[in-house]
Amino acid sequence: MTDDKPEAVQFTINAPPDRLGGVYANFAMVNHSQYEFTLDFIRRDYTQGGATGQLQVRVNMSPLFVRQLIDALEKNWEVYAAKAMPPEARGENQPD
């Protein structure tokens, strides 16, 4: 029987020094067309009641990549939740 999973590809990611720290976003907007999805990551200023915000980055992606991203986020969330969240928050150890 053959394994139909693609081989993991290793590659090097280069980034300019001013981007190594990443950006912080506390809000996201998602839009789509027939051909692509657009995710806007925004830092909202809640000292102004949340009425203002600064776009941090806009990412356009194919529908296939969106599905792969959702799968990766779900898998990573499960690992994170198992380590970092108390059982009650995960829905475990709840009385019937």
SS field, number of helical segments? 1
Q: What gap, in angstroms, lies between the N and C termini?
A: 44 Å
Q: Please outline the major beta sheet.
A: 3 strands, antiparallel
Please tally the β strands and state the result: 3
Radius of gyration: 19 Å
Relative helix content = 10-25%
Ranges with pLDDT <50 over ≥5 residues?
none
Question: How much of the polypeptide forms β-strand, as a percent range?
Answer: 25-35%
* Spatial sequence of strands, sheet with the most strands: 1-2-3
What report would you give on this structure?
The longest helix is centred in the C-terminal third of the chain and has 22 residues, at 63-84. 23% of the residues lie in helices and 26% in strands. It contains one helix and three strands, in the order βββα. 0% of the residues are buried. Strands 1-2-3 form a three-stranded antiparallel sheet. It starts with 26 loop residues before the first strand and ends in a 12-residue tail after the last helix.
